[in-house]
């Protein structure tokens, strides 16, 4: 199947207890532009009688790069460990100031999104949940507006790890976009009223 879209990037805070991982406080990150995943696998071989007798290929680590139209400050506070305080601006209500500290170290999160798959004219929706991702502070680039507008959008990069149960990814392929969103909400611990 060919992938033809990317939508609904979402993250949630992780609680690990023994071999169980749960998610809560899920939030939509922004509107998805691009997501890249690169996975590294171990490639171990057992040699016997001068030949390969056994081989093991297993998940070792991974990287995910997510580009979105915006990453709200409340998401940055969670994934980067930044602080939010009242900005104290007269005439403005509930304006929060984002404070980035030199020792900020955000918490791992669950990360999900879905893409549209098409094969033989039929569309399906592939929802992906990365069970544990640790993001690092993103670089930024700002550019003045000249004769044409050049959009600057944030890109964040994180390490994909295994959760308490040893899983690094969960995914489903569903028949509707609303079903994909509902599954991602369930994974992120978002309760949606009927």
From TrEMBL:
InterPro entries: Maj_tail_phi13
Source organism superkingdom: Bacteria
NCBIfam families reported in the protein's UniProt record: maj_tail_phi13
Protein name (database record): Phage tail protein
């Amino acid at each position: 199947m060919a992938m033809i879209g990317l939508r609904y990037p979402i993250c949630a805070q992780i609680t690990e207890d023994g071999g169980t991982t749960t998610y809560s406080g899920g939030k939509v990150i922004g509107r998805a532009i691009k997501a890249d995943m690169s996975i590294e696998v171990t490639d171990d071989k057992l040699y016997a009688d001068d030949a390969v007798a056994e081989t093991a290929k297993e998940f070792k680590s991974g990287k995910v790069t997510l580009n979105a139209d915006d990453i709200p400050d409340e998401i940055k506070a969670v994934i980067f460990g930044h602080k939010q305080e009242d900005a104290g601006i007269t005439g403005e209500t509930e304006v929060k100031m984002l404070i980035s500290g030199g020792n900020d170290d955000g918490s791992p999160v669950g990360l999900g999104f879905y893409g549209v798959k098409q094969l033989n004219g039929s569309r399906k929706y592939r929802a992906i949940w990365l069970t544990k991702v640790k993001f690092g502070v993103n670089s930024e680039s700002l550019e003045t507006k000249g004769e044409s507008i050049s959009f600057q959008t944030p890109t964040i990069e994180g390490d994909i790890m295994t959760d308490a149960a040893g899983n690094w990814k969960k995914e489903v392929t569903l028949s509707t976009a609303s079903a994909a969103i509902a599954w991602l909400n369930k994974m992120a611990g978002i309760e949606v009223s009927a």
